[in-house]
Design brief:
47% helix, alpha/beta, seven-stranded parallel beta sheet, 13 strands, single chain, 429 residues, Rossmann fold
């Protein structure tokens, strides 16, 4: 093998940038740490951008996606063939590329974020690679990020689709290492498996209980803690904002994020008289929520930003008087961790106001103002408490404690804990 050939490879299969999703950021963060931990070839294998657009996923502006470090390659395999089954064609492209990466002689760790379809793609590629007779040295990690269970498996349980649920569990448990993004997610996995077992006499729950570990999402703390404060005022001024001068929502604009409750709660608060509300993000509910805001009693105090890049996001979080994510369970989505909440706590500024939905308590600990789900009046009270009744010294003390708690989710800490189990030869620099 030529000296220039890689010696250790990490492959991450995920919906990557420009998708607005915490797990696209997690993939980036794991990749960046891997380059410092002895992996000299890191591949993020994902979907072509037109496919992401066609799926209706919220996407960042392409020119706003930050570059990756040397040694990290983003691959977007083209579809295979021209028959009229688009999903199969693109899936075939991804599986085919993974087979090539698994059979070129480089020892590889392959990690999938989302079981459906990414863990399935990895499993299919490993089976093909080994059947080829070519040397194959692959260790697999499957990460259940939440919607795998809250959407796919739960639907299978509720609609008695045994085969679909069995496929997800079998694929998941067939990986070398199984992890979930929170204890809440693992509990959901076990609960769903128990429902399948009770109905069909299978034994998925016991295997999930024994084999699934917790690996929290990896977050680049430096992006939020090493903020250039000299730029803060200038960045905010371009948006017509000032430091400590607005309430912020920054996430995907969907029903499950509780933006409707935030708009109503803000309109009912006294804090509206002191600071405006900024809703930053894109998503399918944006038009309806813009209309809701326009019809509210404080329409002139609510602004929407749909073009925030990763760099500006940090400043918006740091400069906010309060950050609100009023998540609520929906059939299509439950907040299984709360990456944006951790990012806000790392950035500093005013307090986080959120709900105890899903895995959010694991993300925030005792460092957030918790309000009931779907309760705008409680949001109004929390905003008034945080903005009108808390001294600057109190807020600074709370912000420091929140940042200290959030550091456990730093990407280096998460990567090292995960790979201590997966690949003990990986040593911290």
């Amino acid at each position: 093998m030529p000296l220039s050939s890689p010696t250790r490879r990490l492959v991450i299969v995920v919906r990557a940038d420009p998708v607005i999703c915490g797990h696209s950021g997690e993939a980036r963060n794991l990749a960046e740490v891997a380059i410092t931990r002895g992996f000299d070839d890191v591949r993020i294998v994902t979907w072509p951008i037109p496919t992401l657009q066609a799926a209706g996923l919220p996407l960042k502006p392409l020119d706003a996606v930050l570059p990756y470090s040397d040694g990290i390659t983003v691959e977007r395999p083209d579809p295979v063939g021209d028959y009229k089954v688009p999903d199969a064609r693109f899936y075939g492209g991804i599986v085919g590329r993974l087979v090539e990466l698994f059979t070129d002689g480089v020892p590889t760790v392959a990690m999938s974020l989302y079981l459906t379809p990414h863990a399935t793609a990895v499993a299919d590629a490993v089976a093909v690679a080994r059947a080829s007779g070519l040397p194959t040295d692959v260790t697999t990690i499957a990460e259940a990020v939440g919607s795998d269970i809250t959407n796919v498996v739960r639907t299978s349980v509720e609609e008695q689709l045994f085969g679909a649920a069995a496929q997800v569990f079998t694929t998941y448990l067939g990986q070398d290492h199984c992890v979930a993004v929170s204890q809440f997610t693992k509990d959901l996995i076990v609960e769903s498996a128990e429902a399948i077992d009770a109905r069909h006499g299978t034994a998925f729950a016991a295997m999930c209980r024994a084999r699934v570990d917790i690996s929290y999402p990896a977050i680049d703390s430096r992006q939020f803690t090493d903020l250039d404060r000299s730029r803060l005022d200038a960045v905010l001024a371009r948006r017509g904002l000032r430091d400590d001068g607005y309430v912020l929502f920054l996430s995907r604009v969907t029903k499950a994020k509780g933006v409707d409750d935030l708009i109503d709660g803000y309109a009912a608060s006294h804090a509206r008289e002191r600071v405006p509300l900024v809703i930053a993000g894109t998503g399918p509910e944006a038009p309806a929520l813009r209309a809701r805001a326009a019809a509210s009693s404080c329409a002139d105090r609510i602004v929407f930003f749909d073009d925030v890049d990763d760099d500006e996001k940090t400043f918006l979080m740091a400069g906010s008087t309060a950050y609100v994510l009023a998540s609520k369970p929906r059939p299509e989505f439950v907040e299984t961790f709360g990456i944006a909440l951790v990012e806000k706590m790392l950035a500093g500024g005013g307090p986080v106001i959120t709900t105890a939905t899903g895995g959010i308590p694991e993300a925030v600990g005792d460092h957030a103002l918790i309000v009931p789900v779907a309760d705008p009046m409680s949001i109004a009270q929390a905003l008034d408490d945080a903005i009108m009744r808390t001294s600057p010294a109190e807020r600074a003390q709370r912000a420091a404690a929140a940042r200290e708690f959030a550091m456990q989710f730093d990407r280096i800490n998460v990567f090292d804990r995960l790979f201590a189990r997966v690949d003990p030869t990986t040593a911290a620099a």
